[in-house]
Amino acid sequence: xxxxxxxxxxxxxxxxxxxxxxxxxxxxxxxxxxxxxxxxxxxxxxxxxxxxxxxxxxxxxxxxxxxxxxxxxxxxxxxxxxxxxxxxxxxxxxxxxxxxxxxxxxxxxxxxxxxxxxxxxxxxxxxxxxxxxxxxxxxxxxxxxxxxxxxxxxxxxxxxxxxxxxxxxxxxxxxxxxxxxxxxxxxxxxxxxxxxxxxxxxxxxxxxxxxxxxxxxxxxxxxxxxxxxxxxxxxxxxxxxxxxxxxxxxxxxxxxxxxxxxxxxxxxxxxxxxxxxxxxxxxxxxxxxxx
Length: 291
Hints:
Blueprint: E1 6-10, H1 17-29, E2 34-37, H2 47-56, E3 62-65, E4 68-69, H3 75-88, E5 93-98, H4 103-108, H5 116-135, E6 138-142, E7 147-152, E8 165-169, H6 172-181, E9 184-187, H7 197-211, E10 219-223, E11 227-229, E12 248-250, H8 252-266, E13 268-274, H9 282-288
Parallel strand pairs: 1-2, 1-13, 2-3, 3-5, 4-5, 5-8, 8-9, 9-10, 10-13, 11-12
Antiparallel strand pairs: 6-7
Helix pairs in contact: 1-2, 2-3, 3-5, 6-7, 8-9
C-alpha cells in the first residue's frame, strides 16, 4: 500500500540566526514536514544546535540531518544529543546517517578517511550503538571501531523505539544494511548518472530482498532538487555549492502527475527539495501533502 506524501526542505544554513528561524517557520507554514541539514565542515552552522533552534521556533516541523557524517561523530554521544533533541522537541527528530562523501571534511579535523568499505563497516557498527542507546537502559558495545562500557542511555527519547533513521545510498551493501536497520531509505544512482527508473527499481529489489517482512514498513525517499514549476509563485534559486542540478521545468499539474507515477512505480513518498525551491514548490506540497 502506498504511503502518504510528505515533503522536506534541505538547507545548509543561513547567514544569520534570524533568517534560519524565518526559513523554519515558513517551511512549517507551507506544509513541509521537515527541515533537513547536511553535516559538512563547510556549512555555516553545526547541525544539532541549528536543528534545536529550528525546533524551538516551530510547533509541528520535524528536524533532521541530511545526513550526519558518521566518521565525524562518536555514535553513542551523537545518540545522546539526538535523544535530548527529540525529548525537547516533543518527538520531532529524524536521524539521517551516512558514511561520508568528502575526504576534505576528515582532513580538516585530522581524522582518517578510510576506504568506502571501511566507512560502511564503521557505519554499520554505529547503527547498532545508536539503536542500543535508544532501546536499552545501558549501552555496552565492543566492536572493531567502537567500544562503549556501561554508558547510561539518558535521556529517553519521545519517539519509540527510536526516532526514524534515514539512510541513502547507491551501493548494494549499504542499501542492504539500511533495509535491515533504517526506517526511511533513499536508493540513489551513482554520482553523475542520468535518471534511470530501471536501475532504481533494481536497487529497490535489493532492499526488498534484504528487508524481508519489514519491507512494507519502510518509507522511500527521493530528492527532487531539479524541478522548477512554471506556475510556481516564486523564482527558484539553487544552492551555491550544492549538488549539480539540471533544471526540469514543468507545471504544477505535470509535477503532481510525475510524483504520483514515481510513487506508483517506485514507492517514493517522502520528497525533498532545496530551500531555493521552497516557495516555488508550494503548490505541489499543498496538493499532495498527506495524500
